[in-house]
Amino acid sequence: MKLKSIFTAASLSVASFSYAQEAAPLQISGSVDTYYKYDFAKVPNIGTSFANDQNSISLGMIDLALKKTTGKASFVGELSFGPRGQYGSLLNGDGTDGNSFHIQNLYASYAFTDKFTMTAGYMGTFIGYEVIAPTGNFNYSTSYLFTNGPFQNAGIKGAYAFSNKVSLMVGLFNDWNVYKDLNGVSHIGAQLTVSPVEGWTAYLNVLSGKSAGAVGTGTVLDLTTSYQVTEKVKLGLNAADYSVTNDGGGYSGAALYVQNAFTSAFSLGLRGEYFNWKGVAEESDEHVAAVTLSGNVKAGGLTFIPEVRFDNGSSSDMFKKKNLNPSKNASQFALAVVYAF
Amino acid sequence: MKRGLFVALLLCAVAGFAQDAELPFDERGKFIYYEVVAQKDVPAAMLMERATKFFSSSKELKLKTVPQDTLWMARGKVVINKTAFVLSRPSGEVGYHLYLDFKEGKYRFWLTDFSFISYQRDRYGNFVPETTVGIPLENKPGKLNAGEWTAYSKATAREARLFAARFKKGMSEQAINPPTAKAVPSVDTKNQKW
Prior knowledge:
The structure holds two protein chains of two kinds. Chain A is mainly beta. Chain A has helices at 2-22, 83-87, 144-148; strands at residues 26-39, 56-70, 73-81, 103-111, 116-124, 152-161, 166-173, 187-194, 200-209, 218-228, 233-244, 250-261, 266-278, 286-299, 302-313, 319-320, 326-327, 329-340. Chain A has one domain: Porin, CATH 2.40.160.10. Chain A has three helices and 18 strands. Chain A starts with a helix and ends with a strand. Chain B starts with a helix and ends in an 18-residue tail after the last helix. Helix content of chain B is 31%, strand content 32%. Chain B is built from four helices and seven strands, in the order αβαββββββαα. At the A-B interface, helix 1, strand 1, strand 3, strand 4 and strand 14 of A face helix 1, strand 3 and strand 4 of B. Chain B: Residues 33-116 form the DUF4468 domain.
């Protein structure tokens, strides 16, 4: 009798294994992150995205992504829950109540040929070096370029690969970071991708249009590039300029990323950034320089990110001191834990 | 009867374990999958012709040497997936070199120089290579990542065996002269007396 049960269980296991082998796979992946930050002035100072809470063990987000491909068609749906998603990188449903859709990515694609693909929906932006999901960044705190640039672009785009080394994307998009556009599909964007040598990829990006309520047309020009110099050393660069016509302000800046993998489990990365806010109308420009040193300690899907950061601003009241007097400088320590699955 | 069943179960378990084992090392200390296949009475030229046909239909392989040589080399890659029931996600890809050597009535092939490139999710939710430089699969990553690395190594061994089976099928006579397809049975309802 016992033997019969064993055989039944064995047969069932084999059957379910075969089923798993044959079924079209639904990809499910995601991440969770949490952090501790301590600003040495004992007040929250550095205003870039996400790691904002002072002297607190705080939440990032839980991020869940689904992807399914059937033949030439595919979809991606990515949801995030937590301050990094709902408060830090997503607008609420209609922009007025607290009803978040939680959506980071929601789009469908169709590959007409091996070289040409069309995609429509709400997508992570193609502008910039850093991304919203903590698994895509080496440093935990983000750059000013990331914080001031677009996060998502809803729209429709076509991408054509001329060769393995050159491809072009052109699309029509809504205003930045909105689920629906109140002034019509108002932006046009393009991305030229070039991979001149193995390990080096450069993206030349442009996004231009007039957002609802804006004084002028905003155009962002962006260069994002990275080069895997050796097995251990990686370099990255992001440079961007954003201008709004009719003296509507904007920003410009550059960030350099240098990373070295000392072992497969431990890497160090330095980010140096210069960022300039363009003054609106008669206002003068303001700028800030920031240096961030981060470690990445990996154990399976887990990454520990200890980090120190120093920012130096152009005006004496950009940051605060311990006694709340204005300061040109700010510095902070952070320890983040990110798990990817 | 019971003893026979017990032995059968044991054999299944052993076979399962063999499927999950890592590949052996060659004289250079590199993982290798090596096999010599006899194709009695088949000339080397014919074997090369079959191999050419296999390469032309195989997207994941890129031939790097001139097919006139007797020793061929190709580069290939395979994606390693984490799978649980109907869910799956790619963890990374393993690049490898495939070598082929032909003689009259036999050929040999081996897969070696395996290197792993980890995948990460990009801004659009797609999995893409984290870097362009692979880490040799023989490198031990240290205690922190040893479990995952062993899983990659075993998955590579599994994929190498699957590739070998596919390749040998492609090189067999059956692949050149495939059996004619059986007619799908149909029932004629109009010309029947009932």
